[in-house]
Design the sequence.
């Protein structure tokens, strides 16, 4: 079911599309009018020089120009309307696919000369839908088969650690702890690799909706509250901040979680993370600033590369995938990520997301 806002946005979008297409045919009227004027003037010139039309007859011919132009406009108008209607169907269908609706099919009745184009478009969307479904099935099956044994190893090692007192030696406890930490790391690595593969293959963003980015950021903070408390990191964010946005909430959550995770990892105990946001001209800007170890310019240029990790830092060990996911998702939104950092003075990630079709227009 569509909400009233979504229905209004859809009607507005279709009206804009139709008006844009009709405006695109203005050249037909202009060229046609020029041809009419030129024809009448040429006929008058020929009549004067060849047939000996007098001055009055020539003026009469010139007076016919507005009438001929009007007749031409009335004759060409139904042709343009019909052609515009057929082009409009194709443009709307492309917009639907661009917004993730792969179930959309163009009605081929009265398609006229667009019959072949409509049929090929419908075949294309069916093939895209099939390919997408196959990719999702493979990803889900692979994720399940890969995650199950790792989860089992992690769970058993955690249980052995919890029951190790009085049974295991310190050396064996250290080894169990290593198994537990590495299995968790491998699980995170596998899930992030699958997610990166998914967003790399993605060309359009589906399941868009209007929601509050600021509220989503607060939920992400709650998800990571355990890690924040463990390092006694203070988090600062305006309680009244509101950032209405139209997009895929699930995808953007990966962006905020990864950036916040990165900030927590490289911020020492007792440090601070500040989250701020603002509405710019046609865009929403979210900034996440930490008081961590910071980075030099060389590192900043490489942090979005797949599997890149700064070997000079032993503060936290990661997979080197999180920021690649951030970069790819923000790129899908036609946005950008700016990074400002200095060794010993912390880092700021600034995410700029342009407005799309929403009530923000």
Sequence:
């Amino acid at each position: 079911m569509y909400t009233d806002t979504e229905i209004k946005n859809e009607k507005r979008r279709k009206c804009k599309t139709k008006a844009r297409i009709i405006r695109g045919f203005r050249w037909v009227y202009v060229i046609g009018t020029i041809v009419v004027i030129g024809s009448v003037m040429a006929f008058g010139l020929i009549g004067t020089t060849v047939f000996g039309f007098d001055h009055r007859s020539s003026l009469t011919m010139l007076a016919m120009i507005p009438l001929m132009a009007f007749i031409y406009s009335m004759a060409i108008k139904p042709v343009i309307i019909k052609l515009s209607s057929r082009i409009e169907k194709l443009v709307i269908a492309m917009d639907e696919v661009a917004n993730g609706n792969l179930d959309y099919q163009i009605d081929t009745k009265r398609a006229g000369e667009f019959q072949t184009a409509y049929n090929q478009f419908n075949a294309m969307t069916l093939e895209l839908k099939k390919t997408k479904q196959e990719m999702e099935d493979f990803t889900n099956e692979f994720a399940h088969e890969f995650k199950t044994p790792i989860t089992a190893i992690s769970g058993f090692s955690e249980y052995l650690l919890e029951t190790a007192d009085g049974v295991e030696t310190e050396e064996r406890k250290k080894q169990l702890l290593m198994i537990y930490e590495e299995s968790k790391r491998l699980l995170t690595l596998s899930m992030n690799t699958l997610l990166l593969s998914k967003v790399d293959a993605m060309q359009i963003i589906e399941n868009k909706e209007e929601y509050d980015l600021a509220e989503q950021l607060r939920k992400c903070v709650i998800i990571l509250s355990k890690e924040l408390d463990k390092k006694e990191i203070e988090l600062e964010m305006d309680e009244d901040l509101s950032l209405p946005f139209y997009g895929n909430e699930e995808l953007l959550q990966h962006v905020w979680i990864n950036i916040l995770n990165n900030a927590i990892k490289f911020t020492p105990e007792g440090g601070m993370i500040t989250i701020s946001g603002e509405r710019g001209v046609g865009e929403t800007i979210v900034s996440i600033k930490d008081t961590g170890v910071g980075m030099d310019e060389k590192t900043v240029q490489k942090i979005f590369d797949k599997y890149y990790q700064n070997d000079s830092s032993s503060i936290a060990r990661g997979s080197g995938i999180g920021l690649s996911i951030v970069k790819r998702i923000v790129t899908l939104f036609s946005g950008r990520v700016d990074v400002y950092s200095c060794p010993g003075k912390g880092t700021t990630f600034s995410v700029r997301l342009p407005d799309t079709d929403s009530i923000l227009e």
